[in-house]
Amino acid sequence: AGKIRFICFTILFLFLVAMKAAGGYSYLNPAILTLIFVEALINRPYSFFLNKVDLYRFQFYQMLTDIIAISWVIYYLGGIEAPVVNLAYYVIILWAGVVSDDLAVFFAVLVSALLFAGVVALPHFGVLPRISFFDYKMPPLQLFSLLLGNIAFLFAFGYFSARSSKITRILERKKQEDHVRHTHKFLAAGSLTGAIAHDIVNYLITVRAYANVMLEKAEAAGDLPEKDKIVTGLKRIEEA
Fold it and tell me: Is residue 101 within 8 Å of residue 53, measured between CB atoms?
């Protein structure tokens, strides 16, 4: 996962630099390029770094930097005018549900909602420079209705991610328990069969040994009634 993140962010960084050099993407500035470069370089779990940190806390750092980068891109794409880019938030929330727990999902949803609200509301009130690609400024009521709708959907998706991941873990655990249970059944059956076979072989060896001893005594004896029949019967027992 770390290598994939590193490669993806590196390719994105190089692509944006090339487009900026070619005169496109006027919204790009050194700040956003630096942030993407930091994502590519630092947000990879290097082995020497992971040996010194708590992996559970490290995932929150990863989610935070990802959400900041996403929010920064959304701001330079026009905020509420870039609805497709908002899907990146859902990727982070889904990732938190799959690889971590409910606390990570709540953290991802809360930070996404706060930063998204910031990049939408602050430019509208003039706190940040307003970036828009349309000659239209939404009325406050329309803006906040869209904002609340997006935030509500973030929380709804977070609940879905947490619940579905929990159900998936329960099913995986049940599958593993069934596999272990069947394995133990086969092991128990094999152990029982081996023990029974071992006992049977021991008894058969004992019978063969007694038959062999009796056969030697019968052959060494003198005239016995029906000696030939006794010797033949003992040989059959020994062979069997």
Answer: no
